[in-house]
Design goal:
Helix content is 33%, strand content 28%. By secondary structure, it is of the alpha+beta class. It holds the Pfam family Hydant_A_N.
Length: 686
């Protein structure tokens, strides 16, 4: 009998899911995150879940891990000191950057330009030059290169990026510089742009590789610590890390290219939501993952998440494939405050995090948070995590009273309702970004709510969006860990190939795609994945000739195998261009980049089927609780989700509790329980 473990580390809690690979039976545990060293919280979660399952840690064969280490290093500015080597004349590539300023017309006045991850004083030039077709125009001056590298060594750089002009076309000079760096800067990790992002556009290639170097020592230390602690705890399992695009990477691959992990945590949630909603029969989804620190949202169409070519973390935008997740600083720990200047209530993005946490957690927190507001309104029961955590209602009321006093409100309930309304509007805006502003009608999608706080706010958000039903999977608080445990290894290979359609042929492009597929498959081969369990898909970046940007177009293997696929790629590009920009052109199409993605077959997990019951959920009702909705108190039924049966219908207002999350059903709505225990919330009139 084999077991595999899914682990998701969030800002407040670490979620662990243990799965029996043969029967599909799962056990879950939730422990507070340990920001100083995330591996401590992971190990504690493993001990806890193994004890629940009666399994020795040594029986675990695979650990699949979603992590925010790389993301946090960027957001908190605690990455490595990066040295950058450029072609002579291109030393200020990061300072020039792209001419983009967020905000309104006055943004260029008020926006503070972010400091580059590699300082100008830590950037050196070397004499060399390649043409855009890979021809050597100026040989590499190795003597000057050694001197430049020695200068960086004296400056104490902790990681090195080598990004030369047109290295995507011929990496020979970068590779030689890498060899010299190993001699001059022994022990300093080196990232080559021709390996991290072998595509055209110097700035994007450079900033992506610099970001890789910036987080590489931090991620490397964490993964080494995790592997060591797992071994000390008796877990000799193979460890894989979730990539931003929803696939898995081995520890060596994740250590060398951690820029692919920047959206690792959110990607696990999307994968879990797709799996859970598929079990309930839904393919078109808006995923809504609300945790303690932030909320992540994503659009899924036909069972596939939107995967973009850009990853944005804070002010940093890099070119790396990632699930198209939008994040807002809105979570259960988001702090509410009333600035003296405006006297207008604000919620977040500051968060109480795991330490000290909301006031209701009793860990010393005193600031009013979204969790405290939910406690005041009666939406959260007095005990959480299966009774392991008792909430301090008095402390929550005292914290929210600060907001009521600052705003001159007569009672804490109105202040708490204002906090919840504002955080809901913030999350509503994020959901519109991935739907309405991308040309999709949210009313055509179900809303999948998960995370520790997602099911608590989902009913209200669905009312704003018109997205029905609200889908609350079983164990929504650990669904990200489900996603980690139900995905497979993935890698991609890319190449710049700028040709008008009239200048190439289906046969030439198919040959190049086949070469890229072999490159991508090599990673899976090295991990022992049989070719029969590997799937390959292709993507081409297309633009109109003369355009300065391109749009990715997916190509299925059967389409490429059939020939004449460029014509279809052009049609798909036109359709996508119309959806994004409301027009298309008669101008000739042009290829820019070719890409192959190799994916191992994901783990198949069977959802347990519930015992059938009638519509009456009375057997699961454990009491009642007063909740404040729209300015008045309501008597809500309190239900234990573990006692619900398939076919039960829970009328609102109701609060449904379980070990890792709480679901709120508002008045005028009801929650139906399907055969696998998913709650489907709809308006009564629906």
């Amino acid at each position: 009998m084999g077991y595999q473990l899914g682990v998701d580390v969030g800002g407040t809690f670490t979620d662990v899911l243990l799965m029996d690979e043969e029967s599909g039976v799962t056990w879950r545990a939730k422990t507070p995150s340990t920001p100083a060293d995330q591996s401590e919280g992971v190990l504690e979660g493993i001990r806890k879940v193994c004890q629940l399952a009666g399994v020795e840690p040594g029986a675990i064969g695979r650990v699949l891990h979603g992590t925010t280490v790389a993301t946090n290093a960027i957001l908190e500015g605690r990455g490595a000191r990066v040295g950058l080597v450029t072609t002579a004349g291109f030393r200020q590539v990061l300072q020039v950057a792209r001419s983009y300023v967020p905000g309104g017309l006055g943004g260029w006045i008020t926006w503070p330009k972010p400091t580059p991850l590699a300082r100008l004083e830590d950037t050196v030039e070397v004499p060399e030059r390649m043409s855009s077709r890979g021809e050597v125009l100026r040989p590499l001056d190795e003597e000057a290169a050694r001197a430049a590298l020695a200068h960086l060594a004296r400056r104490g750089v902790e990681a090195l990026t080598i990004a030369l002009v047109n290295a995507f076309a011929n990496p020979a000079h970068e590779q030689r510089l890498g060899e010299l760096a190993a001699e001059v800067l022994p022990g300093v990790p080196v990232s080559l742009s021709s390996e991290i992002l072998p595509e055209i556009r110097e700035y994007e290639r450079t900033i992506t590789t610099v970001a890789n170097s910036y987080v590489r020592p931090v991620v490397g230390r964490y993964l080494a610590s995790l592997t060591s602690k797992l071994a000390e705890g008796g877990v000799g399992a193979t460890v894989h890390v979730l990539r931003s695009d929803g696939g898995l990477a081995s520890i060596p691959a994740a250590t060398v290219a951690p820029v692919n992990l920047l959206m690792s945590g959110p990607a696990g949630g999307v994968a879990g939501a797709i799996w859970a909603a598929g079990q309930a029969g839904f393919e078109n989804l808006l995923t809504f993952d609300m945790g303690g620190t932030s909320t992540d949202v994503c659009l899924v169409q036909h069972g596939r998440a939107q995967v973009g070519r850009d990853t944005v973390v804070g002010d940093l935008a890099v070119r790396a494939s990632s699930v198209d997740v939008r994040t807002v600083g809105a979570g259960g720990g988001s702090i509410a405050h009333v600035p003296e200047l405006t006297r207008a209530l604000r919620v977040g993005p500051q968060s109480a995090g795991a330490e000290p946490g909301p006031a209701a957690y009793g860990k010393g927190g005193t600031e009013p948070t979204v969790t405290d507001a939910n406690v005041v309104l009666g939406y959260l029961p007095p005990r959480l995590i299966g009774g392991e955590m008792t909430l301090d209602v008095g402390a929550a009321e005292a914290a929210v009273a600060k907001v009521a006093e600052a705003m001159g409100l007569p009672d804490v309930q109105r202040a708490a309702a204002g906090i919840v309304d504002i955080v809901n509007e913030n999350m509503f805006g994020a959901l519109r970004l991935v739907s309405v502003q991308q040309g999709y009608d949210p009313r055509d999608f179900a809303l999948v709510a998960f995370g520790g706080a997602g099911p608590l706010h989902a009913n209200a958000l669905a009312r704003l969006l018109g997205s029905w039903p609200v889908v609350v999977p079983p164990s929504p608080g650990v669904l990200c860990a489900y996603g980690d445990a139900t995905t497979g290894l993935r890698d991609e290979a890319a190449r710049t190939f700028i040709r008008r359609f009239s200048e190439t042929s289906d046969e030439e492009v198919a040959g190049l795609l086949a070469e890229l597929a072999e490159e991508a498959r090599a990673t899976l081969d090295a991990e022992g994945v049989p070719r029969a369990e590997q799937a390959v898909a292709w993507q081409v970046d297309v633009r109109y000739h003369g355009q300065g940007f391109e749009v990715p177009v997916d190509l299925e293997p059967e389409l490429v195998a059939g020939g004449r696929f460029l014509e279809e790629a052009g049609r798909r590009f036109d359709a996508e261009h119309r959806r994004l920009f409301l027009f298309d052109l008669e101008t000739e199409h042009e290829l820019v980049n070719l890409r192959a993605v190799a994916q191992a077959r994901p783990t198949r997990v069977a959802a347990p089927v519930l015992e059938e019951g009638g519509p009456d959920p009375g057997a699961a009702r454990v009491g009642s609780q007063r909740i404040w909705v729209e300015g008045t108190w309501h008597e809500a039924g309190l239900y234990d989700r573990a006692r619900l049966k398939a076919g039960n219908v829970v009328p609102g207002p109701a609060v449904v509790t379980e070990m890792d999350s709480t679901t709120l059903v508002l008045p005028g709505h009801r929650a139906e329980v399907d055969r696998i225990g998913t709650l489907l919330i709809r308006p009564e009139e629906a």
